[in-house]
Amino acid sequence: MRVLVSGGAGYIGSHTVLALVEAGHDVVVVDDFSNSKPTVIARLESLSGVHVPVHAFDLTDVDKTNALFAVEEIDAVIHFAGLKAVGESVRRPLDYYRTNLDSTFALLEAMRRHDVTRLVFSSSATVYGERAPVPYIEEFDQLASSSPYGRSKVMNEQVLTDVTLATPGQRVALLRYFNPVGAHPSGRIGEDPQGIPNNLMPFIAQVAVGRRERLQVFGGDYPTADGTAERDYLHVMDLAEGHVAALEHLDAMPERVRAFNLGTGTGTSVLQLFRAFERAVGRELPYEIVGRRAGDLPAFWADATRAHEELGWRATRTIDDMCADTWRWQSQNPEGYPDGE
Ligand code: NAD
Ligand code: WQD
After folding, report:
1. First and final CA of the chain: distance in angstroms?
2. Which residues are annotated as catalytic?
3. Which neighbouring-strand residues pair with 136?
4. Which in 60, 103, 216, 341 has the greatest CB count within 10 A?
């Protein structure tokens, strides 16, 4: 298939571009580089050995999105582009609703006009909200989220469901990612957050490389084995391969809209991840336990049975793989991607 990857220069999109090429698909990227650098594309080309066509514009622009579909042959879309910082979404809700919804509207409009029927969407475990029982299962039907970011994902799922059911032939996979971490094993592609990292793994990696003084562990009094919060961390290459599996399964789906959890099915605590990272680096790292972060849940992980049974996909990489690959990326690129090379 020839796959349009929106947000293909970003963290998960870039790894998925490599997995798509590896599986024999052609890719076209659209990205406005608002949270990524063009250097990523050069690295994708050198790693994959293929030319990666890129269209650099804001996907909320309906006319430009339509024009893209007029010039490129597209069989399917994987939609990653959007804003993703939970805390920032509380301060800038309108930006989050506008970007995360308008980009989907523009894509759906262009897909309808150009008769493109296959879509894979980046959703998130955050759609389960605070009341879902753990492990999370896709059947849970009271989706809610405590942040504008999370609600923009719930709304996207609703919009995509309604539009798909009203559009003959259209098929959508809603992929609910748990906590993606890690990097491509080459160390050439990885996560490069701008400013102070919000997420745990890039923060630990920046402590290890000397960019941050110490990790602050948010909360040591949760009702978990070691008192720190548990999450379902999954390797970004497993996640990337999950997109390929979903894409290739779309035409065979009995339901035309289907949600899939992509996770390992196992919880790991903050301190367990931190200790694993110390093993990857080969030395002790500084940390302190501080108060809980507002809005954090004590523990959640995926029931990933559906993705295994229906997509034939399962996460295979371990926590130690995730840490070793993150460390290779971070130590080879201490300041992240350069502006040019
Ligand atoms: P990212 O910020 O690294 O990648 C997003 C890419 O989209 C960036 O390259 C950015 O420049 C681009 N982009 C943003 N707005 C755009 C616009 N209006 N037009 C064109 N391009 C635009 O984020 P990521 O971590 O790779 O996440 C990808 C998707 O997965 C997002 O939808 C995110 O909400 C979702 N997701 C991420 C996580 C996570 O922990 N990283 C977890 C669950 C879901
Ligand atoms: C993991 C654990 C923190 C940083 C977020 C979004 C979610 C999804 C994935 C997009 C928590 C602790 C963190 C630090 C810490 N994204 N922590 N010190 O909060 O599970 O999920 O990213 O959809 O929607 O909410 O991930 O990596 O921020 O935190 O102790 O400096 O690490 O308290 O327990 P989270 P995270």
Report:
1. 31
2. 149
3. 302
4. 103
Assess whether the C-beta atom of 251 lies below 6 angstroms from ligand 2.
no
Could you tell me the distance, in angstroms and rounded to a whole number, from the CA of residue 162 to the centre of ligand 1?
23
Atom number in ligand 1 closest to CA 12: 26
User: Does 9 sit in the ligand 1 pocket, CB within 6 Å?
Assistant: yes
301 alpha carbon – ligand 2 mean position (Å): 13
User: Which of 179, 191, 217, 264 has the most ligand 2 atoms within 8 A of CB, as the residue to mutate?
Assistant: 179
What digits encode the pLDDT tens for the residues 56-65? 999 999 999 9
Taking the centre of ligand 1 as the mean of its atom positions, its distance from the CA of residue 122, in whole angstroms, is 8
Query: Is a pLDDT exceeding 90 seen at residue 25?
Result: yes
Mean pLDDT of 6-25: 98
Centroid of ligand 1 to alpha carbon of 80 (angstroms): 5
> pLDDT tens across 186-199, in order?
999 999 999 999 99
- Nearest atom of ligand 2 to the alpha carbon of 153: 23
Architecture of domain 2-181+234-264+306-315: 3-Layer(aba) Sandwich (3.40)
Residue type at 328 in one-letter notation:
R
The per-residue pLDDT for range 284-297, each reduced to its tens digit, is: 999 999 999 999 99
Buried residues in 318-339 as b, exposed as e (16+ CB within 10 A): ebebbbbbbbbbbeebeebbee
Q: Considering Cα of 114, then 118, then 123, then 128, what sign does the dihedral take?
A: positive
> Which two three-digit tokens encode residue 12?
């998960």
pTM: 0.99
**Number of other CB atoms surrounding residue 71 within 10 Å:** 10
Give the gyration radius of the chain's Cα atoms: 19
pLDDT at 340 over 90: no
